[in-house]
Amino acid sequence: MRTRAVLGGVFSSAAILIGAWSLSGAPKAVHVAAAATTTGTTTPGSGTASSGTSGSAGSGSTGGASPAPSSTASAGKASGTYTGSVVSTQYGNVQVQVTLSQGKITDVTALQLTDREGRSVQISNYAAPILRQEVLTAQSASVDTVSGATYTSEGYLTSLQAALDQAG
Amino acid sequence: MNTGIAERGWSLPEAASAPSEDYRSALRRRLFAADLAVVLCWASTAGAVALYLLSGGVSQIHSKADAVTALGIIAGLAGTNLILIMLLLAARIPWLDRAVGQDVAIGWHRRLGKPVLYLILAHAALLTLGYAATDGLDVVGETAAFLSNRDMILAYLALALLLAVVVTSLVAVRRKFPYEAWHLIHLLSYAAVLLALPHELSYGGVLAAGTVERIYWIALYLLAYGAAAWYRFAKPLLLSLRHDFRVVSVERLAPDVISIHLRGRELGRLGIAGGQYATWRFWSARNWWHSHPLSFSAMPHGDLLRITVRGAGSGTAGLAGLRRGTRVWFEGPYGLFSRHARSAPNLALVGAGIGVTPLRALLEDSRHSGGETALLVRASDESQLYLWEELHTLCEWHGGTAFADVGPRSRATSSWLSADAVRRGVSLQSVFPRILHSDLYICGPGPWAELVAQEAKALGLEDHQIHLERFDS
């Protein structure tokens, strides 16, 4: 009977692992969905940053610094959503979108994050919420980079600065 | 001073009229549950790794460093899954106790200890190497980078605690510690596993918010810690308060053997089966810090309960001075050394020295099943035939015989019998002619009990026919 237990254990484990291995053959879809979820979670309440936008990251549709202000500046203070430039790093492209209200940074959404190598997704998922919080607190792109996520941080802050420059 | 069960005269079991208990289907259910437990251990560990594969973990491997990192993550996932299984195995879950018995569950727990430590050490080493290669740092630099993160500091602390726990549990090291010290260190594993949780959830992003993996892991943590908190701590405390055991009297059976008579409330609700044990804590100045795993040496009668103990350990010697009215807490009853493990029509009982106590309760709790009952007690001299009168009477009531094998051990051969019995050609087969169709219950010191079990296996008994209860002599 012990044999039955061990055989059952070995075969069930093998089946689970082989099944998972073969199913993970379509990782891109899973990966994009995961990135979208994460981005969506880290930016609650930002109406303009739909997961769909970030999900299509890397498609190049928003390449360049094309501003998409949804409302105009009033009394000299900018309001609206501005998309930063695409900053390319050795680990992939980084692009963020900033939401301003009367010149105040109310939200930062990552449209693309470093994703070129295995750990990059993990690092950027870990670093993005920290950077966003620091930016919201400092109200500028002059914040410390996250240790262990230097490339992501620099790309993130550069793209953010570009977006802020557009807003004037 | 003795108003115990012995003086009152204990009653013989009621003659039950249901001889044909269906051992087979009960056995099949039990073995199925036991095998299911093993399969779940394997499958859940594979499942933990599979969740990582499914989330695209492997497809992101583009370099050697990535591969090392992925292996490190897999080692961590498998190791942590097994650690949580270890917590569950030690959590005194009633389902598991009924399926395999608490001692077997703890045996599995022990066997997992070293592999788990290796997996966790591999996890730490591989991830340090993998991260270092990716970041272009050396191992020291990467470790420093890790230590700049609060969650990672906690993880290193968890690793240190885990090392302490496993090292103190190695057989050679464990002997050097008193049980209580070892146990306190061992309880740190609950802290260790919990300290590792923050870095699992925050670092690396494998269990990032919103992933299925995060839900799986949090559920597994809740299950393991919930089971331990309830079955190991809350439930024993509540039962101790409900039954409110007090010492009634201490009865001396031999210079180093005492029976402790206890009185408690609502004993019927405990569901004690003869042969089971509980872990006892006597709230007196000398004894409160020490817990004693002791078998019931009789079934409950009314509101009275009896346990019998030999003053072998440093703590048990102090029990003789227990006063009437001393409060007693307990955990239990535990164990499958009872009628619940029956699988055959005949009953063969073998005990050595104080090992007769669970057999005594088991005899009282066994019903006439149409089969034969026989008992063999091993003692180096007559003074060690504890509870002999009771054992003898119970065996006769079952229509069986109680044998005593008294005399020094055989020096020439490694036998569990006396030298005299070996010379006369006594064996399991000669004492129990129907041994192949019997349940064999063995209780005695570890090495001695193993010898009996070996002879039984050589005769062709199945594993599920052999029931072992060991104690350290």
UniProtKB/TrEMBL annotation, chain A:
Listed Low complexity bias regions: 38-54, 64-81
Q: Which InterPro entries match?
A: FMN-bd (IPR007329)
UniProt KW Cytoplasm keyword: no
Q: Which UniProt keywords apply?
A: Signal
Pfam families linked: FMN_bind
Where do the record's region annotations for Disordered lie? Answer: 38-81
This protein is called FMN-binding protein
Instruction: Tell me which residues make up the FMN-binding domain.
Output: 90-167
Automatic annotation (TrEMBL), chain B:
Residues annotated as transmembrane: 31-55, 67-95, 116-133, 153-173, 185-209, 215-233
Alphabetically sorted, this entry's keywords are: 2Fe-2S, FAD, Flavoprotein, Iron, Iron-sulfur, Membrane, Metal-binding, Oxidoreductase, Transmembrane, Transmembrane helix
Please give the Pfam families that the UniProt record associates with this protein. Answer: Ferric_reduct
Q: Which SUPFAM superfamilies match?
A: Ferredoxin reductase-like, C-terminal NADP-linked domain (SSF52343), Riboflavin synthase domain-like (SSF63380)
Localization annotation:
Membrane
Q: What is its main location?
A: membrane
Q: Does the keyword Membrane apply?
A: yes
Stated membrane topology is: Multi-pass membrane protein
Cofactor(s) this protein requires = FAD
Q: Which residues form the FAD-binding FR-type domain?
A: 240-340
InterPro entries cross-referenced by the UniProt entry: FAD-bd_FR_type, Fe3_Rdtase_TM_dom, FNR_nucleotide-bd, MRET, Riboflavin_synthase-like_b-brl
UniProt-recorded name of the protein: Ferric reductase-like transmembrane domain-containing protein
**What organism is this sequence from?**
Arthrobacter horti
